[in-house]
Amino acid sequence: MGVIDLAVFLFFILTGLFAGYLFGSISCAIVVCRLLKLPDPRQQGSKNPGATNVMRLGGKKAGLLTFAGDCLKGVIVILLARLLTDNQWVIVAAALGAFIGHLYPLYFGFKGGKGVATYVGIITLLQPLSLVVFGLTWLLLTFTLGYVSVASLVGALAVLLSAWWLGYTNAVLTLFVIMTGIMFIRHRQNIINLMNGTENKIRRKQR
User: Fold this and answer.
1) Which of 37, 80, 83, 116 lies 20 to 30 Å from 190, alpha-carbon distance?
2) Transmembrane segments in this chain: where (predicted)?
3) For each of the chain's 207 residues, which pLDDT tens digit applies?
4) Domain count, the chain
5) Among candidate residues 96, 80, 201, 189, the one with its CA nearest the CA of residue 144
6) What domain range is 154 assigned to?
7) How far is it, in rounded angstroms, from Cα 194 to Cα 183?
């Protein structure tokens, strides 16, 4: 690859990353809470603008709407990228941009969620089998342990291991490695809470 070709390639990579970031910066948690007249999720509960916190604040309907919206961000970005190019590195760059935009939204003071819903949308479009791996792991751990954070992180690790085992392309595997690493960083407080025994469960224990 010559210097000019490399420069063009990097231009498209950065363009995809930036465009994905702008779209991913739409915080569905905040939008849903405003539409349903719920408290700002950045100020209440866990103070995380994500589906789990919104569900605690407004119930299952609000939580599902938030999850669906954040998931669709990853789906839509990849679909649009595929309409413009068949270069997988550019497509995954756009997907990564949407993921980062969800975590650090430009329009909402860079205070975003932890990335799980957008992650689900991304893996669904890139490798549908990964959704099966993540979904089964998430359901099993959520309903046995009750910790959404544990289910999400172990699910992401399961997806990463299966991607490596099944020989996914370097572009997709690189994206999965980056997203998994960022998810662990974003869940660091949850990990500390788990170690201290103070992590919230998705359901209350029966008394």
Assistant:
1) 37
2) 6-33, 62-83, 89-110, 131-159, 165-185
3) 677 878 888 888 999 999 999 999 999 999 999 999 999 898 888 788 888 889 988 888 999 999 999 999 999 999 999 999 999 999 999 999 999 999 999 998 888 888 899 999 999 999 889 999 999 999 999 989 888 889 999 999 999 999 999 888 999 999 999 999 999 999 998 899 988 888 878 754 443
4) 1
5) 201
6) 3-196
7) 16
